[in-house]
Design goal:
- The protein has 525 residues and is an alpha/beta fold.
- It contains 18 helices and 20 strands.
- Helix 6 runs parallel beside helix 7 and helix 13 packs across helix 14.
Length: 525
């Protein structure tokens, strides 16, 4: 008796959805017979499970498999792999991962990406999961973290790393080109890796080399990689960072739509906020970060190097992507520290801490990285609300939180968070669909379901249709809303009543059941 939004984008209808085992058995006006268990959905929306196209739940699922902040928004599939992935790992990479862990602590018994996915399955997690292999992870396996170009033999080895990951279930290769060591990859290297992914039916996804001053050149590079590799391309979290770049959205859209008109599969995803979240590494040049975290910190302690870094951080037109320059110290919010002595600074802006310490914001950023022994988690306020609305309206735009799934309890409360971790989907359905009418509800459901499923190459997800996987969400269109804010981020969203994943209730009457996903999603070459 619910209002069925089947994921196609077509008009909704009142009817029934029947599930048998882990598959959908009927979608239509009235299901034949009776169900062993029936749920009255009158007045509620019934939709395919939502897909989080960019999730950082790789670590949080190892600590809490419920994925509560996403589950309570109707998310049934988490997709990993922006730049780095949880495998494959060399012994050195594994040791570094263990050494640099923050609040979330976990063992690493796996080596390959496939073994990581199998490890999640054995532990038991609520959502379906999928992963791309990180281009930076591939690079580190062969080249380490130095700023070097691969030889032909090394590039062949990197291609082999991609092929192995694809054979183990990766959905493609994901790059992140503003962070070391991923930023060291040149276009030809990325074409080679994307070509291998494309041959295996996968895609190329990218945090572009610039989302600010050189965003148009970065879009051109993405289109070139798609054209030369033959792989579809997905632009991660499309945005125009910095007020001076907000007026470039028309040109960005024009380039993408021209490529699409030529037959290239170029799509994008986004989160629904005017601030991003990353680290203070995005406020410093990539050359100083070559060789990894400890090498970066050691260089920052050298007075001559420190002076050079400070000069580049203050440069009004740097050759690298300086997010702090666009956000400003007042728009740089400190959210995550490892060092207990620094945790009282959580929730303060970089400008506030600089004033407390009597230093410049640039000096303070360097000092915090050294003192914390980490990149330091921060939120940068960068984007235009008008551009957010315009991007939502694009028919090739899907959605990703760019955050780990959390719970408002336990270890997760030791740090702050970006509210997108708790509210990205609910914000779309509540604020931008119901309250502002930016797109219709049936179009929003399509963009959360069948569009990303198609982009990922998943043939049996993203629709309510006979024989499809039984991932289903029941929610209240009138009541769905996000509650998380930058001041109080650890708040679950409201309005989702039930979530079925692979035929079992993972959320029932708004409460997690503890049921674990039966399947992991994979494309096998």
């Amino acid at each position: 008796g619910g209002t069925v939004y089947d994921g196609s984008g077509g008009a909704p209808f009142t009817g029934d959805v029947a599930v048998k085992g882990d598959r959908i058995a009927y979608v239509g006006p009235r299901a034949p017979g009776r169900g062993r268990e029936e749920r009255d959905a009158r007045g509620l929306a019934v939709a395919p499970g939502f897909i989080n196209m960019l999730s950082w739940s790789t670590e949080s699922l190892l600590v809490d498999g419920r994925a509560l902040s996403d589950l309570t928004q109707g998310v049934t599939l988490q997709v990993f792999g922006e730049g780095t992935s949880m495998g494959p790992l060399t012994p050195q990479m594994r040791a570094e991962e263990l050494r640099t862990q923050g609040d979330l602590k976990y063992e690493i018994p796996w080596t390959t990406l496939g073994e990581y996915l199998e490890h999640l399955e054995r532990r038991g997690v609520a959502p379906n999961v999928a992963s791309l292999v990180g281009a930076a992870t591939v690079r580190m396996n062969v080249l380490g973290e130095a700023d070097v170009d691969p030889t032909p033999e090394q590039l062949d080895r990197m291609r082999g790393v991609v092929r192995q990951a694809m054979e183990e279930g990766a959905l493609g290769v994901g790059a992140s080109l503003i962070y070391a060591p991923g930023a060291y990859a040149e276009t030809d290297e990325l074409v080679a890796l994307a070509t291998e992914a494309g041959r295996c039916g996968g895609l190329y996804t990218v945090h572009m080399r610039s989302e600010g001053d050189r965003v148009l050149e970065a879009v051109d590079e993405t289109i070139e990689i798609a054209r030369r590799s033959g792989a579809p391309a997905e632009i991660y979290h499309l945005k125009l960072a910095g007020r001076s770049n907000w007026n470039k959205l028309d040109a960005v859209i024009g380039r993408i739509e021209a490529a699409r008109a030529q037959g290239l599969r170029i799509t994008s995803d986004m989160y629904l906020y005017t601030a991003g979240a990353t680290g203070l590494d995005a406020a410093m040049p990539t050359w100083v970060q070559a060789g990894g975290l400890q090498a970066w910190i050691d260089r920052l302690k050298d007075p001559a190097t420190r002076a050079r870094v400070l000069a580049e951080m203050r440069d009004p037109a740097p050759a690298w992507e300086n997010l702090m320059r666009h956000a400003g110290p007042e728009g740089t919010l400190l959210t995550e520290f490892k060092n207990e002595a620094l945790k009282p600074l959580t929730g303060k802006t970089l400008a506030e801490v600089a004033r407390l310490r009597g230093k410049t914001p640039e000096e303070t950023a360097i000092d915090l990285v050294i003192e914390d022994g980490s990149r330091v988690g921060v939120v940068y306020f960068l984007m235009s609300e008008d551009n957010v609305r315009r991007q939502i309206a694009l028919p090739w735009m899907s959605f990703g939180s760019d955050a780990g799934a959390r719970a408002p309890e336990g270890v997760f409360l030791r740090s702050s968070a970006h509210p997108r971790a708790y509210g990205n989907v609910a914000r779309l359905l509540g604020r931008y669909v119901r309250d502002e009418g930016v797109i219709t509800l049936q179009e929003a459901v399509r963009r959360l379901t069948s569009l990303p499923a198609h982009n990922l190459g998943l043939s049996d997800r993203g629709r309510l249709a006979d024989g499809f996987a039984a991932d289903v969400v029941v929610f209240d269109p009138a009541g769905v809303r996000d509650l998380a804010t930058f001041e109080r981020p650890h708040q679950l969203s409201e309005g989702v009543r039930d979530v079925v994943i692979n035929g079992r209730f993972a959320l029932k009457d708004g409460a997690a059941t503890g049921a674990q996903a039966l399947l992991l999603l994979a494309i096998v070459a």
